[in-house]
Amino acid sequence: MAQLTPSLEQALLQAVNSGDLLPESLANIRSLLARSTNPLYPASVEELAAAQAWDELNDRFFRTIAFGTGGIRGRTISRVVTSVEKGELQAMDRPQFCAVGTNAMNDYNISRATQGLARYLKKWFASENLPGRPSVCISYDTRFFSVEFAALIAKVLTESGCDALVFEAPRSTPELSFAVRFHRASAGINVTASHNPPPYNGYKVYFADGAQVVEPHASGIIAEVNAVESDVYEPLPAAEQGRVTSLGKETDDAYMLRLESLLLDPELVRRTPLKIVYTPLHGVGAVIVKPMLERLGFSFSTVASQEIPDSRFPTVKSPNPEVAEALSLAIAQADAEGADLVLATDPDDDRMGVAARGRDGAMHLLTGNQIGSLMAWYRAKRHFDLGILTTETASRGVIIKTFVTTDLQKSIADKLGLRCVETLTGFKYNGEKLLKYELAIPESERGDYITRSEEETRALRLKYSSLYVFGGEESYGYSGADFTRDKDGNGAVVMFSEVASYAKSIDKTLHELLDEIYSEFGFYLERPESLTFEGAEGAAKIQTLVESYAAHPPEMLGGKKVIALRNFAKEDVRDIEGDLIPKEAMLMVHLEGGWKIAVRPSGTEPKIKFYLFAVHECAAGEKLDPAHLAEIKEAVSKGLEALWQDVKEDVDRRLRG
Length: 657
Fold this sequence. Notes:
This protein is an alpha/beta fold.
C-alpha cells in the first residue's frame, strides 16, 4: 500500500495547522493511500500539495463520497487536473484518468461500491435460499468514463461470484429498470449522472423489482459498502466466478413492445398530422425514441448535431431539458420546419422537456408540472372514455406524485374519484408502490407477471389491487405503466405525443387545453428554485440552513402567515394508504390561502432546493371564469415572485447568523 513521504506528511500537517487543509481531508488522504496500491493516488496528492492547492485538496478529500440509497454521484474530472491524471489526452480532450480523491467518482469508489453490493447480494441469496448465483444488469450512458466504469463493475462482480449482464452500448435508465425484471436479475447498476454538468458521473443501484433500492435492502447495501476498506480485493477462483453476458436487440425489442402499450388511442395518432422535433441532448435517448416514433406513425425529425453522443454536451450550457436554453436548437428547427412540438430527453433519458406551439405561432416551454398534469388529466380521462375505469372502479385508479409536485394532479384525481398517493422525492418510492400493487394480486393469479400483457395485468390490478394511471414528479420525470419502475423518458415521449395529438384533433393548442384544465380544477402555479453551494464550504452552508429551518421555522413569508409546519425528518407522516413515509430532511411550510413552501437539500447536487406553491381554487361545484383566468395568472405569478424574494432574504439572514 502507498504511504505519505515524510516531506509530504510535513507539508500536509503544516497546511492543517495553518487552517488551509481540513483535518478531515488529511485523515481521508492518509486512509486512501494506506488502502490502495495505485501509484496515481500519491502522485496526484503530492502535485496538488506542491502547488499549495489546498481548496482543491479539500474538495477532493473533505469527505468520503457517501453511498446512499440511490448510489453515488460526483466529479470524475476535478476543477484542477493534475499532470498524472491528464496523462495522454483521450477523445474529446478527456484526461486519461479520473480524479483522485475520496469525494470523487473514480475506480476506488466504483470498486468499493461494487464489492459491497456483491457481498450483500450473495448474503441475500443465501438468506432466501435462492438457486444459482446473483446476476446484475449493467447499463451506462454517454458520459466521460462511463464505458470504463461499466467494465470495472462487470469485472468486480464476476470476480466476486456474480453474473454480469452488460448492455453492448449505451442505454437509458428506464430500459435498465425494465431489463432487471425482464432478465429476472437480482439487481441493476446504471452508470450515469443524469443531467449534471460534463465533469460528473454516477452509479445508481436497482433491486430485483426494477426500482432503485429502498428499505430494508438500502441499509443492508450501504452497510456492506461502508465495510469495504479498499479497492484491492482477492478474486475468487476461476471456477467460482460469474459470467458476462451482452444485452442488446432482444431487450430493446421487448421493451419497445411494452412502450407501444402506453398509447391509449392509436387510431387518434394515425389520423392526426402532428409534427415533432426531438433531441436527445447528446445522450442515449435516440436509441429507443427514434424507432418508437417511427413504429407508432408519428411524423418527426431529430436535431442532428445533438443526436451525436458527446460527453462534453457541446451545443448546450446544460444538458437539462428543464432549462430553456437546452431546447433552443430544437425550437429553431421546429420553427424552420413548421413543427407543432419539441420533445427533449436528458442524457440518460429518464426525463423529458417540452416546447409547444401556441395560438400566436410561437413555441412556448411547458414546466414539468404542466407536462405531468396534461398527461395525468388525459390518461385519467381516456381511462374512463375507453371503459377501462368506471364510476364503480374509479377508486382503484391511482395517480402517484411527490409531495413537491403540483397539487393540480391531486385535484384532478379527487374530482374524478381516483386516489392520489404522495411520496417523497425519488421515483424509488413510486417503484415501491408499484411492487406493493403487484404483490397484492394473489400469487395463484399473478403467475409470471413480467411476461403477461398489459391487458392481462390491467385486469388483475383492477380486480385485486390498484391500477396505475400515471406517476410524475415536478422535475420532468414521468411514467404511465409498471413495466418500468423508474421515470421513463421514452414512455413520456410516447404518452405526451398522444396528448398533443388529442389537442390538435380538437383544434386546441396544448396551452389552451391546459387553460381548460385550470378552469375546471383550479389554477395552480409552482416555482421550483435552488441555491447552489459548492465544495466543503458549501456543504457546511447547506447543513446550516437545514438545521436552521428545522429549529427556527419562519413565522411569516411573502406577506402570508405560516399556519402549519410539517417536519418530515422528525414527524411520523403516513400517506393516504396508511404507509409510513420514511424520514427525510424536508420541511413543508403551509401558508394562508393554500400556498406552501417545501425546503430540502438535494440528494445528488450541491444545492438546497425550495419549492413554492400557489393556488387559486375553484369555488365548490363551480369553474373558474375563462375571461378572468389571465388576471388570476398574473396576480398569482406576482405573488410567487414576492414570496421567492422574501425567501432569499430569509436565507441570507440565516447564513449571517
